[in-house]
Write a structure and sequence with these properties.
Helix content: 25-40%
Distance between the termini: 11 Å
Shape: globular
Order of helices and strands: HHHEHEEEHEHEEH
Radius of gyration: 19 Å
Number of domains: 1
Strand order of the largest sheet: 3-2-1-4-5-7-6
CATH architecture: 3-Layer(aba) Sandwich
CATH topology: Rossmann fold
Largest sheet: 7 strands, mixed
Bound molecules: S-adenosylmethionine
Strand content: 15-25%
Number of strands: 7
CATH class: Alpha Beta
Structural class: alpha/beta
Number of helices: 7
Length: 251
């Protein structure tokens, strides 16, 4: 990355204001515009390294709230006391690992995840990652909750946007000022989540007086049937060695 780019206005501002990456200003602008995070909220941050969205989310949810982030890479704070992190691949972990100790669904799910950029097929990989988030939302986000995810625009973007519209009452696409002009990244922001209604598989059993079959998943996604808390969920993150991470303050 060119030195000129690395030391742009947002990079310098992040250093001055103590944020771990320039991407902090993307979430700040998104949340100022859309008011996704409220005091006391439980927030899940997908692709959280090096941690600037964790910082912003913790500020906005306050000490009564709770923020959990996941990344392939370990992150090291300092973060507020109500921030926890998990190291792993979001597409492979049990979504319950991202809930709080009581197993309650989040009020807000954020994703700044990006596939490893090779310059070839990035758009499709980014859309695929977003689809995997939407697939898992019923196990992460409570009814009425808010959502923002990064995606690289391209030909598969309109169907992704349409799918998001089917799951939320209020969807808007934002390109924050801190996003570099040359980037195709945008953020799909959405409010008032409509989780899918899980129908019993076999209504004949019910009409015959038999008990209804169990739900297909541990939770209906409505926030009233939490799955059991994951073991070791609150374990501290492994030491990260992030001190020399080139992405710090440069994302
Ligand atoms: C642009 S960075 C996020 C910056 C972060 N929002 C911040 O403000 O510090 C994107 C992150 O997504 C992570 N990522 C990509 N795919 C992932 C996956 N499948 N599971 C977890 N993290 C992933 C990458 O490791 C990378 O750290």
């Amino acid at each position: 990355m060119a030195r000129r780019e690395l030391h742009d206005r947002y990079f310098r501002q992040a250093k001055r204001e103590g944020y771990l990456a320039r991407s902090a200003y993307k979430l700040i602008e998104i949340d100022d515009k859309r008011k996704l995070i409220r005091k006391g909220d439980r927030v899940i941050d997908l692709g959280c390294a090096p941690g600037s969205w964790l910082q912003v989310a913790a500020e906005r949810t306050g000490s009564r709230g709770f923020v959990v982030g996941i990344d392939l890479k370990p992150v090291s704070g300092p973060f507020a006391r109500n921030v926890r992190t998990v190291v792993g691949d979001f597409t492979e972990i049990d979504p319950a690992d991202l809930l709080d100790k009581e197993g309650r669904l989040a009020n807000v799910v954020l994703s700044d995840m990006a596939p490893n950029t090779s310059g070839h097929g990035d758009h499709f990989m980014s859309v695929r990652l977003c689809e995997q988030i939407l697939d898992r939302l019923p196990l992460l986000l409570r009814k009425g909750g808010s959502f923002a995810m990064k995606v690289f625009e391209g030909e598969a973007f309109p169907p992704l946007l349409e799918r998001t519209r089917q799951s939320f009452h209020d969807v808007k696409v934002i390109k924050p000022k801190a996003t570099r002009d040359v980037s195709r990244e945008v953020f799909v922001t959405a409010k008032r989540y409509k989780p899918p209604v899980i129908e019993p598989d076999d209504r004949a059993d019910e009409s015959a007086g038999a008990p209804p079959p169990p739900a297909a998943t541990p939770s209906t996604g409505r926030g009233d049937e939490p799955p059991p808390p994951p073991p070791g969920w609150f374990d501290p993150p492994a030491p990260s060695g992030n001190g020399s991470d080139p992405e710090r303050t440069g994302s």
